[in-house]
Design brief:
465 residues; mainly beta; six-stranded antiparallel sheet; five-stranded mixed sheet; 46% strand; elongated
Length: 465
């Protein structure tokens, strides 16, 4: 060992120290870090936690201290646990734990990586500009240690909803271009933002304006649904076309209009065509600007074909799809139900068609909310039928209904059950009415409620003569 009077010496292996004081040689254990700090990857705004634990010769305890150093220069006094609160980008760097005694020191380091959303893309450029498309390219910003997973392209237009940005396309994070399909007659501008595991970054600066020319509509109303409901009326709905009768011998056709961006040009209107099914009739067509058409003098519960086509000043939309449904049923009273079903295909009958049986059960009286017994009813409709009437249903009640086909060998399986509610009916007669305490200008009347309300009573009407 190398010795110095009154000084300290280190063993050749570095494990122990010795000191010579007043002619006495003293040997001590070297200071060691036994729990080293670990590298951290932390999202901006959260907490980074470094731990460090050292062992040292107990005879040197009065001189022991532990500090932290950032990037080799900034000293941070503290215990064995270092918390970095509200981490931001400036906190990234190398954090070193330094353990010291008066005889020696040792150190261990860990790296703090700060994860953040990606910076806004830059250098947006539009190219390959066509009537209904444009290519947009950009340069990705810094991903801040979290790889970009995708880019989101947004647009804004200044005619229908100026100032509102809406998504138009997403592309993978390794792609910096997007081919954008566009609507006609729209004045666009675009911007892009990046997404990584931390979240969505800020958007880029918007591009300049790009205006597309007006064209004919691209689509017609869709998802047509047809449902008959009340006397001499048919409900048609698409997206949601709705055919619904409101007054006798009238068919109201309504639909959800195209979105403003889907107009593709000025002067949007709709051509509505309708005709009775399978009679070889010519189409009756009406053109309207609103999304409502009232057709008068319709027959009762007759199948109709309906189609709706969009048009603007630049031309017609695509050829419309034809849907079928029934005009409204005749409601003689609130206890008669009109039912329709789709006939079973001929190749699944396994014999000659006998007809259809409709089964129904009254489950609940809606006014009292009570569950009822399992009284089951059925009615047979012979031959190749697709609809029928069920008499004797109670007003303001909940029913379930199934249909099955039958042939000479027996009954086929029941359809899936449907649940329906019957409407309120007219209340029964007031059972008792008495008059008393008659005076020259007043009289007292007392009556009892109807035995069957058939719905929610709203008021009593008093007539006198």
């Amino acid at each position: 060992e190398e010795e110095a009077r009154g000084g300290a010496t280190r063993g050749a292996g570095g494990e122990r120290f010795s000191s010579l004081q007043n002619g006495a040689l003293r040997v001590t254990d070297a200071t060691q870090i036994v729990a080293r700090p670990r590298d951290q990857q932390v999202v901006r705004g959260s907490v980074a936690r470094f731990t460090c634990q050292a062992e040292y010769d107990q005879s040197l305890a009065p001189s022991f201290n532990l500090t932290w150093v950032k990037d080799g220069t900034e000293e941070i006094p503290g215990p064995g646990v270092l918390l970095v609160l509200g981490v931001n980008r400036s906190d990234r760097g190398v954090y070193t734990c330094v353990a010291r005694t008066r005889m020696d020191q040792t150190a261990a380091s860990a790296l703090l990586t700060v994860l953040d959303v990606a910076d806004a893309p830059g250098d947006l450029e539009m190219s390959e500009q066509r009537e209904r498309s444009v290519r947009l390219s950009w340069t990705a910003g810094s991903d801040h240690n979290s790889s970009i997973t995708e880019f989101v392209v947004e647009f804004e237009e200044n005619q229908w909803e100026p100032g509102r940005w809406r998504e138009i396309q997403r592309v993978p994070g390794n792609q910096a271009t997007a081919d954008l399909p566009l609507q006609g007659n729209v004045n666009y501008q675009f911007r892009v933002y990046a997404v990584n595991a931390v979240g969505s970054g800020p958007p880029s600066q918007p591009t300049g304006r790009f205006a597309t020319p007006a064209t004919a509509p691209d689509r017609n109303p869709e998802n047509i649904r047809i449902q008959g409901r009340v006397p001499h009326q048919m409900d048609i709905s698409w997206e949601n076309i709705r055919i619904q009768g409101r007054v006798p011998h009238q068919m109201d056709i309504s639909w959800e209009p195209l979105l403003p961006l889907e107009h593709n040009g000025p002067g949007l209107e709709y051509k509505v065509g309708y005709r009775r099914l399978a009679l070889g009739e010519l189409w009756t067509e009406r053109t309207v600007k609103r999304h409502l058409l009232a057709v008068k003098d319709t027959p009762t519960f007759v199948p109709y074909e309906v189609r709706v086509q969009s048009r603007n000043a630049n031309g017609w939309g695509p050829e419309p799809r034809v849907v079928t449904g029934y005009s409204g049923e005749d409601v003689l009273n609130h206890t008669l139900l009109r039912v329709s079903w789709t006939p079973v295909p001929q190749d699944t009958l396994r014999g000659h068609l006998g007809g259809y049986t409709v089964h129904w059960v009254r489950r609940r009286a809606l006014l009292r909310g009570e569950r009822l017994g399992e009284d089951r009813y059925s009615l047979v409709f012979g031959g190749n039928r697709s609809h029928g009437e069920l008499p004797g249903l109670a007003p303001y009640s909940e029913y379930t209904l199934t249909v099955n086909v039958f042939n000479k060998k027996g009954n086929g399986p029941h359809s899936d059950p449907i649940t329906f509610l019957t409407p309120e009916g007219v209340p029964a007669q007031v059972p008792i009415l008495t008059a008393s305490n008659a005076q020259s200008d007043a009289i007292s009347l007392v009556w009892g409620p109807p035995l069957e309300a058939h719905g929610i009573l709203t008021h009593y009407l008093l007539r006198y003569q």
